[in-house]
Specification:
Distance between the termini of chain A: 58 Å
Radius of gyration of chain B: 21 Å
Structural class of chain A: mainly alpha
Number of helices of chain B: 7
Largest sheet of chain A: none
Largest interface: A-B, 85 and 79 residues
Strand order of the largest sheet of chain B: 1-2
Strand content of chain B: under 5%
Oligomer: heterodimer
Radius of gyration of chain A: 22 Å
Largest sheet of chain B: 2 strands, antiparallel
Order of helices and strands of chain A: HHHHHHHHHHHHHHHHHHHHH
Shape of chain B: elongated
Shape of chain A: globular
Structural class of chain B: mainly alpha
Distance between the termini of chain B: 41 Å
Order of helices and strands of chain B: HHHHEEHHH
């Protein structure tokens, strides 16, 4: 495989060097576990909101998004359009609550929040396992995506490319923790927005405008240009529900809310995150549609792999400087999601699971280094999984986003706002969400048994978990309000 | 007299809507699809309302009810238009184009994407100072943090 234009390579390498420098700075600034996991609650709203949007916009958006447009036509709109609405919903439901929790308790992770609310190691354990499975599978996919993009740029094999990328991510996450993560997210978010908007207009111009592209897409399959594309209607609607409501149950988004310096700074977070995501999603829409229309019209040869849509368009139709910025943006999208997952996974291994089993550290310094070790372990596990554990990655990929959303939307989104949610309800709901997610994934992946009408497994498990939490809580809540400590009740009623 | 938002009632509402979603998922077909879409809209509304029920208790429920009502109306009208144009031509053969897309697709792109999002994302800062995080609530939490002692309540600002 040949390397791309030297300008593209130069921009990508410069970008990686800047990220490394931020990692070194983060290492020097990180003195405690709180610094490492939630950056010591020191950031303003631009950093937190940009970091929230940048970690949600993953490699899936920048690389998989155009690929899905290429595959299913306008069906992918139902994922691409949700975030601008999802962020304000998350802000209304969880913004203040998460930050106040970090105010009244020593809350550093999402399972910490669950434990504080329900005072149950069992709930903490189930949630930790769900989050850990989600983190490792997502991270494995991100690392594969990173190898795919960087191999295109550098002209190396995917394995060499992923090792280079992993080394860079490892330096800044193992050393600098969330401090370096948020600062790089800020840079990565800005690059994503800039690159996306420019390429959107280039793609729009290349395709001859929306009407021309829509008519071309409809040549082979008229439904591809329809409101639900070539996929089942119920699948598109399930995506819309899962990705909108599920945003508030994503740990890499929700735990950013701990990090803000002051509650009053939350005010402008929803528009900043929502509009930034909107801008950064324009590229996947533009490239996905332009390439699909080009192939349908016979101007572009059919792609062997739908995920090639973005790299193909960038290398063939975009000025090298702009292409370099966008490739850097793609690397940024993947890295920003990866660093958040590494941080969350490390906290799971070093803090949440040991705590739920009764282990305590003798000093904060010891816990900080346990988290660093946890980060390194998560990276190695994900790397091994990406290349030697395809079955598990594919299996967990069936429920992906729902491994987080199904337990956390009911337990935190509803439970942090309703003092009638009980410990019993939370235990049953967290167990049901884990069993249901894994059961649906196994039946789909190994036996090809799926839900009827194209219903997405994750949306189904989210709905069922919400029913279980509220239903069991209503049956067991005669003493629910007495079981909540005063400080947590104040947060729930805030 | 301020209108109250009971989190108990909202939770029961969410339970009812989630059950309706489950039924819609299993029924499928045009009826299931339409029911599911409106259940989603209802879920969004109740989810936001339960999220602000504490603020509503402290200040007033009215601004939040208006906000959610506007959001629900926007989404309900958008979905009505979407279903209307989708079922007029479900195969999308020779469609009528609006602003570059078949009509139902144009509804998704121009009406479902940004209008409800823009409304809600700017409603948050608009309501923030007076109804979401007022100075008296901030003072209460500062006082609480100052008076906290014991291992269960450490942390806070460094």
């Amino acid at each position: 495989m040949a390397a791309l234009d030297p300008i593209i390579v130069g921009i990508a390498v410069l970008y990686l060097a800047i990220v490394l420098a931020i990692g070194v700075w983060g290492f020097r600034e990180t003195d405690s576990t709180e610094d490492f996991l939630i950056s010591g609650k020191r950031f303003g709203i631009w950093a937190v909101a940009f970091s929230a949007f940048a970690s949600i916009m993953s490699g899936f958006g920048f690389i998989g998004g155009p690929g899905l447009f290429y595959d299913g036509g306008y069906a992918f709109l139902w994922i691409a359009i949700v975030a601008p609405l999802a962020f304000p919903i998350s802000w209304f439901v969880l913004g203040k609550k998460m930050r106040l929790l970090a105010e009244v308790r020593e809350i550093l992770t999402i399972p910490d929040a669950v434990d504080a609310r329900y005072d149950s190691d069992v709930v903490r354990f189930f949630v930790s396992v769900s989050v850990l499975l989600g983190v490792i599978s997502y991270l494995a996919v991100q690392l594969k995506a990173m190898g795919f993009v960087l191999a295109e740029i550098l002209g190396t094999s995917e394995l060499v490319a992923v090792l280079i990328a992993t080394a860079v991510i490892a330096v800044y996450t193992v050393g600098g923790g969330m401090l370096a993560g948020v600062m790089t997210d800020l840079l990565q978010g800005a690059v994503m927005v800039l690159g996306s908007v420019v390429v959107f207009f280039i793609a729009w111009d290349y395709g001859g405008g929306w009407l021309q592209m829509s008519q071309n897409i409809a040549l082979d399959d008229p439904t591809a240009a329809g409101a639900f594309g070539s996929f089942p209607v119920m699948l598109a609607l399930s995506w819309y529900f899962l990705f909108t409501v599920g945003n508030s149950g994503q740990p890499h988004m929700a735990h950013k809310l701990y990090m803000i310096r002051d509650v009053k700074l939350l005010k402008w977070g929803a528009p900043i995150a929502g509009l930034s995501y909107f801008a950064s999603s324009l590229m996947m829409l533009g490239i996905g549609i332009a390439v699909k229309a080009g192939v349908a019209a016979g101007d572009i040869a059919a792609l062997s792999n739908p995920d090639m849509a973005a790299p193909y368009f960038l290398t063939n139709f975009v000025n090298p400087v702009v292409a370099g910025v966008v490739f850097a943006a793609a690397i940024g999208a993947i890295m920003s999601t990866s660093d958040a997952f590494i941080n969350i996974g490390a906290a799971n291994m070093a803090r949440d699971i040991p705590t739920s089993l009764g282990f305590e550290y003798s000093s904060d310094r010891q816990e900080l280094w346990a988290n660093r070790l946890g980060s390194a372990t998560i990276i190695v596990l994900a790397l091994l999984l990406a290349y030697f554990g395809q079955i598990l990655v594919g299996l967990l990929g069936v429920v992906g986003w729902a491994l987080f959303a199904a337990p956390l939307v009911p337990l935190l989104g509803i439970g942090l706002n309703w003092d009638g949610a009980t410990r019993e309800g939370a235990i049953v709901a967290s167990a049901v969400s884990l069993v249901l997610n894994l059961g649906l994934a196994i039946s789909d992946y190994f036996f090809e048994v799926t839900l009827p009408h194209g219903v997405v497994a994750g949306a189904f498990s989210l709905v069922v978990t919400a029913i279980v939490l509220v239903g069991v809580s209503l049956l067991t809540n005669s003493h629910a309000r007495d079981a909540i400590t005063e400080d947590i009740r104040k947060v729930v009623r805030a | 007299m301020a209108t109250a938002l009971s989190s108990d009632r909202l939770a029961k509402g969410l339970l009812a809507v989630a059950l309706a979603m489950l039924v819609a998922m299993l029924v499928g077909g045009p009826s299931g699809q339409i029911l599911f879409s409106y259940a989603i809209v209802a879920f969004f509304g109740l989810y936001i309302l339960i999220g602000v029920s504490g603020s509503a208790q402290r200040h007033s429920a009215r601004p939040f009810l208006y906000t959610v009502a506007v959001l629900v109306v926007i989404l309900a009208v958008v979905f009505a238009a979407l279903w209307h144009f989708h079922f007029l031509n479900p195969t999308y053969e020779n469609p009528v184009y609006w602003l570059g897309f078949p009509r139902a697709t144009a509804i998704v792109v121009y009406a479902l994407w940004m209008p409800p999002a823009l409304f809600l994302m700017f409603a948050y800062p608009y309501l923030f100072d007076e109804y979401i995080w007022s100075s008296d609530e901030a003072a209460e939490f500062e006082e609480m943090e100052r008076s906290e002692v014991g291992p269960a309540a450490v942390g806070g600002e460094e």
